[in-house]
Amino acid sequence: MTYASTITLAVFSAVYLGMALGRWPGLKIDRTGIAVLGAIVLYVTGVAGGADILAAIDFPTIIVLFGLMVLSAQFAACGFYDWCSSRIAATRASPTAILGLTVIVTGALSAVLANDIVVFAMTPMLVKGLVERGLDPRPHLIALAGAANAGSAATVIGNPQNILIGQVGGLDFWEFSLVCGPPALLSLGSVFAVVWLVWPRLDHGPACPMNGKAPILDRLGVGKAALAAAALLAMFATPLPHVTGVLVIAALLLLSRRLATREILGLVDWHLLVLFGCLFVVTAALARTGLPSELLSAAAAAGVEPTGLPALVALTLVGSNTIGNVPAVILLLALFDGLPRETLYALAVLSTLAGNLFLVGSLANIIVVERARQSGVTLRFADHARCGVPMTLLSFVAAVAWFAWLPLLQA
Q1: How far apart are CA 250 and CA 235, in angstroms?
Q2: How far apart are the first and last CA of the chain?
Q3: What are the residues whose beta carbons fall under 8 Å from the beta carbon of 204, sequence distance 6 or more?
């Protein structure tokens, strides 16, 4: 094994072990920091030069993700997410109806906006409203995370891994939604059904509105954000490149008399953008060693189809719940070059739905847990797994059946 291959394997192993554990033992470095250090080591040791690093980073994906974060930040800065979550918690409807509202609203928002920012903004206000009503917020938080993941699977802009897959495959926005929308809707139904059935004390608590004041909603700002979202969706129906459309919308949103640029950019998840860029560098270095190609050739020789539906089910379930669905997709796209559209659709849906299995499966789950903890509510691994395992298995059954039948439906 060459010097470059040895260094690359060591860095790759250390980085993806960190992705699985969330940190390196004994240190406070998080996933983003681990990815940054991995890229630095590759550069310092000469394994990846400046040109290699620039070539490895998929800048269109980074740009599209940034632009969507700016759009979502506009909604957040105007109090839209806080307003939605407070209205859900303050309704006179029963706790079961609140659960349904949480699933519907979160799923719909996550299909159009970045799901990570949706749950980041909605979690604290939802916790506050439910606690004031005397309700246990934990099942609703599980539904919030599950619906954010399931709803985001419906569109090519719903979450970071879909954005990446869409850019790599040049996937059409509307065709993606037609193919991936049905399993996403079925998954939203499974989120509601499982939480309602598994959490027996859901309906315990007073059915009265919360006493706290509803958050202030900047209606003009929300209207501007809604128009921007509608314009972006309209652009996706034209031949205009996604990158261009997203940048135009982001630029128009930054032109504001009400919101300072610092306020909008402060809501952008820069850590996630840096994580993406550095993982691109690490996985590209691994691909250059030729080892992934050798493994795929060996699998094919053994009669295993690595890109078949059964293999994708196993890879996404294991990958998403060890290293996370975003790193898993980056790795799989680096391993499997030139995947057909049908496989990319399945990869997008399965990798997203797999994130509901355990708390570590997606960034949205982790964000909900951390934001809830800051609000005084502890959501344990076992609490989530009680609902996460059955809702994921049901979702996977529906998704696999859909993708297995899809060629027959299109014939």
Answers
A1: 13
A2: 48
A3: 95, 135, 136
Residue bearing tokens 């490895």: 56
Least confident range of 195-204, 316-325, 329-338: 195-204
Domain ranges of the chain: 3-410
What was the pLDDT predicted at 272?
A: 80
291 CB contacts (<8 Å, ≥6 apart)? 5, 9
Which two tokens mark 9?
């394997």
* Of 140, 137, 128, nearest in space to 211 by CA: 128
212 pLDDT more than 90: no
- As a residue count, the chain comes to 411
Q: How many CA atoms lie within 13 A of 45 on its CB side?
A: 16
Please give the model's pTM, rounded to 2 decimal places: 0.80
Closest CA to 43 of 35, 52, 34: 52
Dihedral through CA 69, CA 73, CA 74, CA 76, nearest 10? 140
What average pLDDT does range 245-273 have in this prediction? 89
